[in-house]
């Protein structure tokens, strides 16, 4: 039996640390992530909840874990007949990596496979901890989870995106092994996009005394914010699970970014046995540092619970001090300053990592979005991981936190609608109570394009009112919103529903902004989804309308599933909803590797970032054909001046710029100047006969001086592999990641944008390669094998550190090319 010695050691160490003079142990809080060494079985295993079940043949995995991103076993020679999904080819059945052409979910889930899976974790708790209360917190399991401890059922949780906690104490054994068992069921059509399968977020084990702060029991708000001081209101839910009444004192200390105490306060409360009370305290912070996307200042609230002279619980809560308001006249006002939300929608998957919510992967997503000009995200269409919100707090990214993609009326046979009636209140509470202290969150969304608003006007409005009221009861400090279905006809049918909300989300309806403002002048609007290919129209409508607080493109980051949503094709070819072997949506400003696509640069320019320029060349269209670009797509253009075989052929060169004018040069020859203002949609186009060399676009200011440049050069044949890690050092915690960009370079060190060689990887040292990928949306290669074919000259390798210090040495080889190497320090 594999017993988690980490948990034993951690708890034993804590028991020694808190022994008092008379030999008794204080009841302070222990909060430990238990992610290493879980046993996993893909498939059902009746009876696996029993502690003596034989799981020795099961795989050992670390969390977070997503089995749908793992390789499927190869098809047997005589595979049984299966019913193919509507989008898949009728024959033959194809399987590669994690992809199966007969996947029940089909292209909606990227041809991945769900099913049933089991997890078991064995750990021990010392005898000295018999007076503790133990709970387990699951940040996210997709989906329909059932949990047992030592065969005793603890409960179930249907929704795949909300966190939940369970009391372990009644079934716990002390001084001997405990078995925590989890069954997960993702069978059927559960989602409209890739959701993954399994325990894909962190799991935490918590031990406290009987008198403690309840789970998610701290609520921090800042109702008064001025330059000279700010009022910080803290409400603490205090619980007494002991057998006797107690008198408790609660102390709070506010620490600034440098660790200095800047405010403190204390309150007292009497608690009967089994009672829970809410204790309010008001604190004043002098000359507060305000949180905003530009200056994401954070404070820490340290809360201690005292019974007599003992500290019986302690918890730390990060928070930010900021104020915001909305109205139709000023729009969104943060800390007294109006601002527009330059937003993008994000799904929860991490591309080649699947649904696995590693802290570093979540942080990297926010970094990439900030670098691309975004200041806000919408978590479409579910609550995100805590790590994602933590990163938004630290890095400065406003968040519209969304709850559901459906209510009672489902969009798939096995989706959340089956559980909505019985569960929505608990799931809303999970989202709001867990996330309410994040300064990044400015609004809660109660749903996205729910069917009720289209098919049942009165019912949809009444249900929206009930959900909105529930959210406001849980958190009265933020706005309540929804993403409205663009198929609602007539649009005025939404008026009763919108009347319950503070912020009305319009999906793909920028043309309704002005007429609706004339009709309902007090309504505040956000473009909660917009087409990438209509960036100019939707953003200009936002800029021109004070009552529209921002725009959220669908989508900022590409994702698995909803395959080929952004497919650009030629007239007469299949439409954008292409079938196998498409695996990604192909509609993100950034692709699934995190590389920026042309529309990302255009959007940053449309946002108004000064002195920006970008130059792209359209892929030559075959004679007699016409390119078809759908709303979620973008013209087929690339930052390349390497077009062998096109010598002398005119190529369309598009220059996007926020400069007043741009000039184009080819091999030093001046091809002229053109304006690039709003009147030209920030775009200038040239038809340039192709000749190898250097194509340069220059951004000019009002005086004609060069202030920006974007140059493309003709690349030679690929000669070498280069590896570029995003970080030089990792923590030795078994979780930290390095994202290594793989580039195929010519002999002069230039990326060859046409190179597609197969790259083989080898890693030495205390770590592992957890994923490889390219940006090819039609690749069905494995994400787990140590090889990947480059696409447009690039690929990606993701390396995870182990818990030992050392140096990781990654080597990448491709036939006929010089190998690339990179060293990454772990620990130390």
Write the layout of secondary structure elements.
Blueprint: H1 5-17, E1 30-33, E2 38-42, E3 59-61, E4 95-96, E5 99-100, E6 116-124, E7 133-138, E8 145-149, E9 152-157, E10 164-167, E11 177-185, E12 203-208, E13 211-225, E14 229-240, E15 246-255, E16 261-271, E17 276-286, E18 299-307, E19 310-319, E20 324-327, E21 331-334, E22 337-339, E23 341-346, H2 359-371, E24 376-379, H3 386-395, E25 398-402, H4 420-435, E26 441-448, H5 452-455, H6 457-474, E27 479-484, H7 495-498, E28 503-507, H8 513-519, E29 525-530, H9 535-543, E30 548-553, E31 569-570, H10 598-606, E32 613-618, E33 627-628, E34 637-638, E35 650-657, E36 661-666, E37 669-675, E38 683-689, E39 694-700, E40 706-713, E41 720-725, E42 729-730, E43 737-745, E44 758-764, E45 767-773, E46 787-789, E47 794-801, E48 806-813, E49 820-826
Parallel strand pairs: 23-24, 23-30, 24-25, 25-26, 26-27, 27-28, 28-29, 29-30, 42-49
Antiparallel strand pairs: 1-12, 2-3, 2-6, 4-5, 6-11, 7-10, 7-12, 8-9, 8-11, 13-14, 14-17, 15-16, 15-18, 18-19, 20-21, 21-22, 31-33, 32-34, 32-35, 35-38, 36-37, 36-39, 39-40, 41-43, 43-47, 44-46, 44-48, 45-47, 48-49
Helix pairs in contact: 2-3, 4-6
